[in-house]
Design goal:
With 305 residues, the chain is of the alpha/beta class. It contains 9 helices and 7 strands. The chain has 2 domains: 240 residues, Rossmann fold (3-Layer(aba) Sandwich); 53 residues, no CATH class. α3 packs parallel to α4 and α4 runs parallel beside α6. 37% of the residues are buried. Bound molecules: NADP nicotinamide-adenine-dinucleotide phosphate (NAP).
Length: 305
């Protein structure tokens, strides 16, 4: 992390993936409000350049190395923020990966994993690591930058819904993490929310129509600067209204039929073992020729103590 512009009482915000696009615009706007901003970047040159650009406008911005998929950079960043400030007030989980995807039926496990590594596991790891410093804040705010593609409601109702299964499922997981963490932290001074930013053309895959920067960043700024009586555990649209993300879940019909037969007659030992999956596919081909319904029923659950 470069030298800090100040160690005064201003609020401290960290934005992952803040060197460009929506993250960079959010960095500027928070800094313009007098908030001290740490631009997180996995690339030193991009990070330094972005921070210097804003610092040259007299904005309180510095760069911090953070690759959300690399635990040692996350740990180092936590140590640096702890040593410099002893707390973190605002964490904006903005980093994301959005690859050009084939149809869901042709999606590879590797591609879906890549999306989860950045968009979900990366966000989870960064949030977990910074939680002790957020607890030191008098008003901790966590903003998980999600997407309309992470909304069931959007996919069911919008003509702009796309087949982008890896990206979409990683954002759905992020929304549920937001909800769960907020419940866990209820009664603390930390608020956790997710939001859909406005559209901004940042890559060939993102929005085909761009909003203004103000609209693109509106929901993120709103949640980063929430007052103490503001909401927690919610998913907001770009207009800062609560999105109907989870409401439509109930419209999924219950599925029954083949799952009992499928599991009873088989010896499906491990869904994390590729060899075992192939064996199972061969077995079903031989026995039944086809599979009508696949219910992914396996879970792993730990008791929280
Ligand atoms: N743009 C839109 O219209 C739109 C719509 C809905 C939701 N969103 C969401 O809004 C957020 C910002 O979107 P954007 O379009 O501004 O994104 P973007 O321009 O693609 O920027 C993504 C940022 O994430 C960083 N990043 C990627 N992998 C990383 C890693 N492993 N560790 C740390 N940083 C990493 C990138 O860094 P590098 O420069 O090093 O690659 C980049 O700074 C994302 O969460 C996106 O899902 C955007």
């Amino acid at each position: 992390m470069a030298t800090h512009t100040s160690k005064n009482n201003s609020r401290i915000a960290l934005i992952t993936g803040g060197t460009k696009g929506i993250g960079f615009a959010v960095a500027r706007q928070l800094a313009e409000k007098g908030i001290e901003v740490l631009i997180g970047s996995r690339d030193e040159i991009k990070g330094e350049t972005a921070a210097e650009q804003l610092a040259s406008e007299n904005l309180p911005v510095t760069y911090i190395l953070i690759d959300v998929t690399n635990h040692s950079t996350i740990d180092l960043a936590v140590t640096e923020v702890a040593n410099a400030y002893g707390r973190l007030d605002i964490l904006i989980n903005n980093s994301s990966l959005c690859l050009k995807e084939p149809r869901p039926s042709e999606l590879t496990l590797d591609m879906i994993r890549q999306h989860f590594e950045v968009n979900f596991f990366g966000t989870f790891a960064v949030t977990k690591a910074f939680l002790p410093l957020l607890r030191q804040s008098s008003a901790g705010r966590i903003v998980n930058v999600s997407s309309d593609l992470g909304s069931f409601y959007f996919h069911e109702t919008s003509r702009e819904s796309k087949l982008q299964c890896g990206y979409s499922t990683s954002k759905v997981a992020l929304n549920m993490f937001t909800h769960q963490l907020a419940k866990d932290l209820k009664g603390t001074r930390i608020k956790v929310n997710a939001c859909i930013p406005g559209s901004l053309t940042t890559t060939e895959l993102t929005a085909h129509h761009s909003h203004s920067i103000e609209i693109a960043t509106k929901s993120i700024i709103f949640l980063a600067t929430l007052s103490d009586d503001g909401p927690t555990g919610k998913f907001f649209g770009q207009d800062c209204e609560e999105d109907k993300c989870f409401l439509k879940l109930s419209s999924l019909e219950p599925i029954r039929v083949l799952v009992t037969q499928f599991s009873r007659k088989s010896s499906f030992s491990s869904i994390t073992n590729v060899g075992s999956i192939h064996q199972q596919v061969d077995y079903i081909k031989k026995q039944y020729e086809a599979l009508d319904i696949l219910i992914n029923n396996t879970i792993i659950a730990f008791q929280i103590v």
